[in-house]
Design brief:
The complex is a heterodimer of chains A (about 350) and B (about 190).
Chain A lengths: L1 H9 L2 H35 L15 H11 L10 H18 L4 E3 L2 E2 L6 H9 L2 H11 L3 H32 L4 H7 L17 H24 L11 H4 L9 H26 L10 H5 L4 H25 L7 H28 L1
Antiparallel strand pairs in A: 1-2
Helix pairs in contact in A: 1-2, 2-3, 2-11, 2-13, 3-11, 4-5, 4-6, 4-11, 6-7, 7-9, 7-14, 9-11, 9-14, 11-13
Chain B lengths: L1 H24 L24 E3 L9 H5 L5 E7 L17 E9 L18 E3 L14 E3 L5 H29 L6 H4 L1
Antiparallel strand pairs in B: 1-4, 2-3, 3-5
The chains are: A mainly alpha (about 350), B alpha+beta (about 190).
């Protein structure tokens, strides 16, 4: 495990763990967020038969870097009538929620920020922490549209926690563990051992599990879309109605912070889906390191597969964003309480019965 | 219950249909034309910036009179005998110095009405459409090929010629009927 190794290397547990905790931020979240914004713009452009950013650097690859440089230079405006402490704190609270969730994500068999036995539970608890930040941002801006956006966001996220958690619980019932690293380890060898394909279970049970697990994944995916405020559930930001929702009043780096948190959150929910349903850091068909006999290659491959699968799901989120129109508030609640929640319950009972055998 | 299941099915199915449509667009050719690098060919009769081939202009003032917004200003001076202005490309003899041919393109409404009456076809619409300026005065185009000094000279020449002619006429009149001295000056 890298955190222990670093602790040993520096001779101090605190410093070692601190550096280990900062690794995903600098090695993954920041570059990923930069290129996720770029990918989002490119995907949207391609889906609308446009070209997208292509001026800064080859194929526009440095566009978001230029954007960030611009945002750094912007004046940091705090509205006169804003609630200043809350206003300044909100973006960091939101980002803290996102970043905290990264602690329990298993990037590889040798790297997990914190190998706790309540990983799934912890992530679900901590990622809804960003609701507080959103409400703070919406309230502190002293802008009616911001407050509307924040209130919608809170209603939405709190509602969608229910089907998301039920879907996760139904999966966890079969898996029998909440530790994401353990869950990933179980789904070893080939892709038919992923939990969405019944997991490493033998016999008829495996085939019976495929459909309920797929339903659980779909429910979790839809609910996670709502939790990270992505279209079709983007009513908290709803550009056409609320200017920009809860982050209307923000400028400069604080504004960038919201984007960092949004894209970080997208990856967190994708990573949970990947860890639980798609084999985590496991390769779908054996490791190159095993066949070549290079043992240090295996963890690198694991990191690659984890990030690759996670990014693929993020791309699906973007794909959905540029496909579907925004839901109305009442439709949003209908989807959650009248459709997702009952189906999640039925699925829970179904999986419960299957696990009895 | 049936309605409920139907709704669920419709929800999933329509989302998948939508996703199929959007993914198919990933592989379609882009419609964007990257303007300053790539330009669309203008239609043949596109009306843009006016151009005057002053070598062919006979100073007839017809375009100026046709202009509905009065953006063309033409001043001419008659040529004195002995000055040869040459001919236009379609064989018309030029008899006027065009001392001023200004088009205020800022006023121009691109109607093209000035193009049709021109007897020598020396004013036409080009395909240039990028001529924005920071200073409005720069949008007044001077087409006359005479410098201001030359134009002044031509005017003086003509004035002199006129005076000369008037004097000669007066002299002739004075010889013909010496009683009425001043009638010649009036004409």
């Amino acid at each position: 495990m890298i955190p222990d190794y670093l602790a040993e290397f520096f001779g101090n547990k605190f410093i070692g763990y601190l550096i280990a905790a900062a690794l995903p931020l600098f090695l993954w979240i920041l570059p990923y967020a930069l290129y996720a914004v770029y990918a989002e713009r490119k995907v949207s452009a391609f889906m609308q038969d446009r070209i997208g950013p292509n001026r800064v650097g080859p194929k526009g690859l440095f566009q978001t870097i230029a954007d960030i440089l611009k945002l750094i230079q912007k004046e940091d405006i705090v509205p006169a009538s804003a609630d200043k402490p809350l206003f300044v704190m909100a973006p960091y609270v939101i980002f803290a929620g996102t970043f905290a969730a990264f602690a329990a994500l298993p990037f590889s068999s040798i790297y997990i920020g914190s190998n706790i036995n309540l990983g799934v539970f912890y992530i679900m608890a901590v990622s809804s922490f960003s609701v507080v930040g959103i409400l703070m941002a919406g309230w502190a801006g002293n802008n009616k549209y911001s407050l509307y956006g924040a209130m919608r966001s809170v209603a939405q996220i709190v509602s969608y926690e229910v089907p998301a958690l039920l879907a996760i619980v139904s999966a966890v019932m079969v898996i029998g563990s909440l530790n994401l690293n353990e869950i990933s380890e179980m789904q070893t060898a080939y892709f038919w051992n992923w939990w969405i394909f019944g997991g490493p279970v033998v016999g008829i049970k495996k085939f019976l599990l495929i459909i309920p697990m797929t339903i659980a994944f779909i429910i979790f995916f839809i609910a996670s879309l709502a939790e990270v405020n992505r279209t079709p559930f983007d009513i908290p930001e709803a550009e056409s109605e609320l200017v920009a929702g809860f982050h209307t009043e923000y400028t400069g780096m604080k504004f960038a912070m919201f984007f960092l948190a949004e894209y970080g959150n997208m990856f967190v929910v994708s990573a949970i889906s990947v860890s639980i349903f798609f084999g985590g850091w496991q390769s779908p068909f054996g490791y190159l390191g095993n066949s070549l006999g290079i043992s240090w290659l295996i963890p690198v491959e694991q990191v690659f597969w984890f990030l690759f699968k996670g990014s693929l799901l993020v791309l699906v989120q973007m794909w959905l964003r540029w496909t579907l129109p925004r839901l109305r508030v009442d439709q949003l609640m209908t989807v959650c309480w009248k459709y997702l929640t009952p189906y999640a319950f039925i699925n829970l009972v179904l999986i419960g019965i299957i696990t009895l055998f | 219950m049936k309605e409920y299941l139907k709704n669920t099915w419709l929800g999933i199915y329509t989302v998948l249909v939508g996703m199929k449509v959007t993914i198919s667009h990933l592989f379609k050719p882009k419609v964007t034309i990257q303007y300053p690098d790539v330009r669309v060919k203008l239609p043949e009769r596109a009306r843009n910036r006016l151009y005057v081939n002053i070598d062919d202009c006979i100073g007839c003032d017809q375009c100026s009179r046709a202009c509905p917004v009065d953006c063309i200003t033409i001043e001419t001076v008659k040529a004195v005998p002995g000055e040869d202005l040459g001919t236009t490309s379609n064989g018309k003899r030029k008899a006027l110095w065009v001392t001023k041919f200004d088009i205020d393109i800022a006023k121009c409404c691109y109607c093209g009405l000035c193009v049709y009456p021109c007897p020598t076809e020396c004013i036409w619409m080009t395909d240039v459409y990028e001529f924005s300026e920071y200073n409005r005065d720069n949008l007044i185009y001077h087409f006359s090929n005479l410098t201001p000094e030359e134009a002044e000279q031509k005017k003086l020449n003509y004035q002199k010629f006129e005076e000369e002619k008037a004097r000669q006429k007066a002299a002739v009149q004075a010889v013909n009927n010496p009683n009425k001295q001043d009638s010649g000056n009036l004409s």
